[in-house]
Amino acid sequence: LYQKVANSRMTQFLLKSEELARRQQEEEIRRHSAPLHAEDKGLWKKMPLIPAPFGTGKLVRLGLAGNKEKASNVFLDFFKTFHFGLWGYQQRPYPAEKPFDIQQVVGSKFLEKRYLDFTLRGSTWYYKDRLGRTRGPCEVINLRTAWAAGIIDGNTFVWGDDMDEFAPIDAVYGLKQAIDTPDVRLAHSRNSHAAPHRAGHEPSQSQKGL
Q1: Least enclosed by CB within 10 Å: which of 69, 107, 174, 177?
Q2: Average of pLDDT values for 102-117?
Q3: What is the pLDDT of the chain when averaged over all its residues?
Q4: 201 half-sphere exposure, CB direction, 13 A CA radius
Q5: Are the C-beta atoms of residues 90 and 53 closer than 8 Å to each other?
């Protein structure tokens, strides 16, 4: 019975369909593997695949703006819906099939610089301590002091005025650059000998945009 089912035309058709779907998925991932800006190549490789919509079980990449014209169209579309949201209108959701990340349109370095400027102008932050309790409000200078003392690091969860929820410092654009300045790194290196880290596995690094 097993051989009969395995050799049937329906089984062969299903196996062939799965093989074609797998090849199509690999081709789709390959086409969306080179971002527009060369500076984003390393970051784009670290971005994990996302589950495909509609419960198909496949893994796909985010949509990729492969040329400047497509990137401009994506940015203008995002800009229009962003202003609708500012005035209280319902924003059109991203397409479920291939959502775009605005970071790849303008470039990660440009986005980091803009968020860094916004952070340095003055923002109020809260962070979770090692016991999970919320600490704050505090300014960037307070976060620098806590970083130098070893109280917080890149995996500490923080929340700012314009954030929906707590996120690791490494995952917030421009925040680590505002905190981990050369003088803070020097102070942290001197304090690390007095308060060494516990032995254990290094926590995984958070990826921006997730």
Answers
A1: 69
A2: 75
A3: 75
A4: 3
A5: no
For residue 108, pLDDT beyond 70: yes
Residue partners of 41: CB distance under 8 A and separation at least 6: 34, 35
Which one of 1.10.340.30, 3.20.20.10, 3.40.1550.10, 3.30.1490.40 gives the CATH number of domain 109-194? 3.30.1490.40
* 137 preceded by a cis bond (ω within 30 of 0): yes
The residue ranges of every structural domain in the chain are 21-103, 109-194
Q: Can you tell me the distance from the alpha carbon of 205 to that of 166, in angstroms, rounded to the nearest whole number?
A: 16
List the Cα angle 190/193/195 in 5-degree steps.
110
What DSSP letter does each residue of 152-188 carry, written as one string? --TT-EEEETT-SS-EEGGGSTTHHHHHS-HHHHHHH
Phi, psi at residue 83, to the nearest 5°?
-70, -35
> End-to-end alpha-carbon separation of the chain, Å?
49
